[in-house]
Amino acid sequence: MSGTAGAQALGLLILPILARAFAPEAFGVFQLYLSFLIFCTVGIALRIELTLVTVDEENLRSQLTSLFTLVVITGLGVSAILSFLNVVGVNIGFPIWLFGLGLVSNGIIQITSYKLIRDQDFNRLAALKFGQVGIYAIVALAIAYSSPSVLGIIVADVTGRLGAATFGIFLNRREIDLKADTGALKGLPRFVRKHWELLVVSLPGAMANSAGAMLTPFMIFHLYGATQAGQFSLVDRAMGVPVAMIVSAGSQVFLGRITVKIRAQDYRTALHILFRIVGISALVAGFGAVIVRLILPYAFPLLFGQGWEMAILLSSILVFGYAAAFVTGIVNQTLIALREFRWQAIWDMGWLGAMGSAWFLVATFNLSIYTAVSLHALVVTLLGFIFVFLCVAKLRGAVATKEMSDI
């Protein structure tokens, strides 16, 4: 977590420079690209990458090889679909070839991350993230200095992901055997069928969850325009991304720790870990949100310059939603660790339904961007704590079942 936080600090350090060099429209287009990228990354390996945490050593090599092959094929397929949409007149808003490179790179990074979680090799996991942000920072600053353009931030982001993906392939070079039957293209259908439950149950729910997350930046872009989307994007880069990165790191560490207890059927200790993490993160997020809210009106203009007045108001609304996401996001892999894929899918569908309903109200009644962002923060907070309660209930049920079986 400290390594990931350090990497994110590097990204934050250059954000004031980027905010002065690039127009709000550039941030708006970048946010649209990033939303699509995150959405597609969820399904890039059809959720089969989750099996890396629990697969036995005998099958680890073939599992990794098949996953890397699957990522490339899926990435090419998604890029082809988006290219076709561009040809028939649907304006995607960014170059497809850049998106495709970012998507395949993200898939490789994702697989490598789960492999490192399995190995409890958090030093290299932090190095992977730090390398990605470091390359992004260097390229973004170079573009900001030489010729800032609408696509400049996207180019820097893709370059950083490519660098991290290259490092990921280097780390796994001895595990990849594309000549083996399991790694060849002809072996992929059999590989996917073997993990049909993840494809049929977990993937739709995860895609629904990601769609709910991308809905807000997507709708802001299309309802309020690129400039206002750029104002929201700066807030998300300055506040939401650091929270998401730390939550992601914490979630991965939490998953690595809790799966050890679940495999040993020590559900009571797993429940204790869950309570402890939620309690500590709630304390940190609560105090942090109050302090940030107080200093926002003074810190934002000082850091990012003039022209971001709307971003200040949006950040004042979103700060408490980010605090709630910090608390609930760290434990977001609990149901996956318990192999409760159906309950995870139900919650994911509910997330998309709730967020979609909020935006339906916004579009129907032509509500302001401030009301829309307030509804977004409310949905994030309520559904996040509902998820925590569901995790507690499932772990308590597992404890009771284990104790009954022991008797």
Counted up, domains total 2
Written as H for each helix and E for each strand, in order along the chain, the element string is HHHHHHHHHHHHHH
The largest sheet is: none
Q: Based on CA inertia axes, which overall geometry fits?
A: globular
* Gyration radius, in Å: 21 Å
Distance between the termini: 40 Å
- Poorly predicted runs are none
SS-derived structural category: mainly alpha
User: Number of helical segments?
Assistant: 14
**Approximate helicity band:** over 70%
Total strands: 0
- The averaged pLDDT comes out at 89
Q: Kindly estimate the percentage of residues that lie in beta strands according to DSSP.
A: under 5%
